Please model this.
Amino acid sequence: MGQKGAETRDRLLDATQELVETAGYFGTGLNQVIAVSGAPRGSLYFHFPGGKDQLIGESIRRAGRTIGDTLEEQAGTSPSPAEFVEGLLRHLGDRLAESGWRKGCPVATVALETAAVNDPLQEVCSEVYASWEAALRARLASRADADDLAVTVLALVEGALLLARAHRSRDPLERVGRQIRTLLD
Amino acid sequence: MGQKGAETRDRLLDATQELVETAGYFGTGLNQVIAVSGAPRGSLYFHFPGGKDQLIGESIRRAGRTIGDTLEEQAGTSPSPAEFVEGLLRHLGDRLAESGWRKGCPVATVALETAAVNDPLQEVCSEVYASWEAALRARLASRADADDLAVTVLALVEGALLLARAHRSRDPLERVGRQIRTLLD
Model:
């Protein structure tokens, strides 16, 4: 693929992620993806012959890798697991408030919409969550209960993001942040 | 409203809740609600003149009251906050697995789909979560940090349900259940 093709592909994925974060799988139409991306209509099926499911699946995988990289990077530079998770919650709160309560977890809406009705996308969401669990587990490896704790920390972060979007408020992220030391210290 | 009218209204709300728990707000069509409920088409706009948003809003409020009642009932009979939350996670895991990974939180999918784009439904979801937070806070009233802890417990339960649906597995609920005592005892 030439540079122009790669740019068009990226624009399509950027538009898809933006729309899906706002309104989910069923709330995102391919016409909107074309309009927001500014890409020619024909390019969508050229780059994503599998249509909507391939487009959304690749967008979720890409968002998953970006967040996975951030997790590993921040895990490496934070002095303790508690400070790592507190920093993560602050970062997510900034991102959410600045986006007008649009940008929470880029996977959660699709995960809930597809869990029971779309096997290929359910698998993509499950894989992304498993990769984040692995990144958290690595940061908690000194703990005997690292496996349980990694899933618990991810559940807390996902739940706090959900409540923050539902209330359109950073308050749930801040309240959860104040309880992190009880769990991790 | 006569008894027959009340029954039709309930059937419409039951069908709506079932469809919305499976595929969310944008994934639920009024034609499906008619088909699943078996109610006459005209009855939908007779009972819900506000259409889809009113129907889904009332379905979410009703599900919220049912779960709120369960929370208060179980809070009253469990010997400690930790046993209360552990019991809740087991109950939710049973319900989720028996439903083929459809029935997690009846509010979460709509909350995420509408947070940024539908003010009336965002308000309904926010009110339901606030009512559950109040029920949890009442059970934790002996703790100085009851406000933060109630939101943290709700975030944990919501996050664990999300991960359980995403992985189609009770495993996240069980792992979180094993960490509850660290947070609450």
Summary: The mean pLDDT of chain A is 95. The domain at 3-184 of chain A is CATH 1.10.357.10 (Tetracycline Repressor; domain 2). The longest helix of chain A spans residues 51-77.
